Amino acid sequence: MTEEKPSETFDVGAFQRRVIDEFRANAGKVAMFGDEASLALVTTTGASSGLPRTVPLSYVDVKGQKVIVASAMGAPRNPAWYHNIRKNARVTVETGTETFEALAAIPDGPDRDALFAEVVAIEPGFGEYQAKTTRPIPVVTLHRVDEGADRVRGMGDFVVEVHDWLRKELAELRGQADEIADGKATTFTRTADLGRELREHCLNFCEALKHHHHGEDAGAFPMLARRFPSLAPVLTKLAEEHAVVARAQERIRALVEAYVPGEDDPARLREELDRLATGLEAHFAYEERSIVAALNTLGPAPEIP
Question: Which of 109, 145, 129 is nearest to 3 (CA)?
């Protein structure tokens, strides 16, 4: 999209409204930009007002990924729409042929530099804008969040699958604790030694859960924080919940390692497992509501042999 620096009397708002109206009336075509222009309307949520804000933006298709550039024609400050997505990454994108919801991610560091170089190779004008300003011009990738039959299974989907496995294992663990308390071996028991089986199962579960949360704290969460600044409060809350879960695990581990069936009262162990299950389900549900879509933007799910 070719842009000229407006004069002091130029009404940017009125100009954008005319472009938006023509875009919507003509299936994404705006005469002044030509038939070949890649133009989209991007609706963000105002960082201060909370109101929808729609702006026409040119986008660059980089290996099938839609990228918008916060160039502001080389101005010293980032445009308002960029500040909006730092506060709320959810956007609506109109291309003229379709409208879809998306998450706007902000690559940084070497990822930003590599992507900006690819953008400039396609649209050299953005390199000229960068030469006019000392700020590194941000690039923003738009990731569809609508479901489709051909959607690639992503990292967020993988996390949900891990959660479901942990849910199943914890349910089985609670079943074993109930069997010990009831003095019988039925559905959940694999061996005659209920105490040893419960101990091994519990320790394996706690180790798997610890590994899962450590992976999120050390890997996924820092990456999300960089690409989606608006998720900072959510990620802080999730990390705090990890610490709470870890303390619960330690209490359960201590009980299980010292537990002697027939001698110790199983009520305390069952209470701790129930408390962990309640807290963990709330944690999983909040995480799945809050960050699964963003996790899916990080890449495809790993293939587990």
Answer: 129
pLDDT digits (tens, 9 = 90+) for 257-267: 776 666 666 67
Report the distance separating Cα 66 and Cα 249, nearest Å: 43
In which residue are the tokens 């990822």 written?
111
- CA 293 to chain centroid, in Å, comes to 5
Number of separate helices (H) and strands (E) present in the chain? 9, 6
Spatial separation of the C-alpha atoms in residues 273 and 174, rounded to whole Å: 6
Residues 6+ apart with CB under 8 A from 85: 44, 91, 104, 106, 140, 230
Three-point CA angle 137, 292, 95, nearest 5°: 50
Give the Cβ contact number of residue 236 at 10 Å: 12
Half-sphere exposure of 188 (CA within 13 A, CB side): 22
Q: What is the pTM of this model?
A: 0.85
pLDDT (tens digit per residue) in 23-76: 999 999 998 887 777 999 999 999 999 999 999 999 999 999 999 999 999 999
Q: How far is CA 114 from the centre of its chain?
A: 22
